[in-house]
Amino acid sequence: MSLKEKYALVTGGARGIGFACVRELLLNGIEGVSLVDINVKKGKESTALLQSEFGPLKVLFLEADVSKKAEVRDAFRESVEHWGHLDLVINDAGMVSEQNWEPALLTNCGGALQGTLTGFQYMSTKQNGRGGTIVNVASIRGISPNMAMPVYSSTKAFTIMLGRSLGAPMYYDHNGVKVITVCPGKTTTELMLSSASLVASSGLHPNTQAVHVETLNGMKSQSPQEFAKLLMTVLDQAASGTVWAIAGNKVNQIDFSSMDQQCMLYS
Hints:
Layout: E1 7-11, H1 16-27, E2 32-37, H2 40-54, E3 59-63, H3 69-83, E4 88-91, H4 102-123, E5 132-137, H5 150-166, H6 169-175, E6 177-184, H7 190-194, H8 208-217, H9 224-237, E7 243-247, E8 250-253, H10 257-266
Parallel strand pairs: 1-2, 1-4, 2-3, 4-5, 5-6, 6-7
Antiparallel strand pairs: 7-8
Family: Belongs to the short-chain dehydrogenases/reductases (SDR) family.
Protein name: Alcohol dehydrogenase
Keywords: Oxidoreductase
């Protein structure tokens, strides 16, 4: 997709994949980006860094906790008031919290859902928008679970089905808004590097940490920057409702057709 005269909002944009996506959008000529994050200190530092590289008028920092609906709505409203338009949303904010799981559900599931619904609100051609694209960042673990991280894997499976559902032709044809889901593989972010300490309780099984480390060691890693570059390729070719794996510095569309056909047999 052409990013000329387009405006984006990226949640979880202060670091990791989110920050890399903001920077890659700017490298590809987007007019302006709202960087949304709960971490004010890191958000302001990242915004200042990007402004020094791309100019002070290209990036806006907005504080928001995506687990809180009102804060998500306020961030979208402030972004549109500042830029005048919204054309692209990347819902990247997420967390790992296996033992204290309620915040993970609210952030990973609630944040993706509220970001998607609010994206429709501002971009739908039925509501004075000019159409657009929503990208929900799930995980390869939403397709093939990490047994040591059942909560995280389940939240990412939710994100995948959310995108497949709201990305269906009936919604795209009516609103002019694409919904695309991307599933990163092992990506060298702070979240990934600290995840071994956040796995499922040893009360469920004594070897959860070892299983998690073994799972990660068996995967080829990629940098957030490599992920973001491949995301631009997905934006160019992806149809609404599709799901893409960006793993091992490669991109592939996930084919659910055989699964869908099997489900039809049982319906």
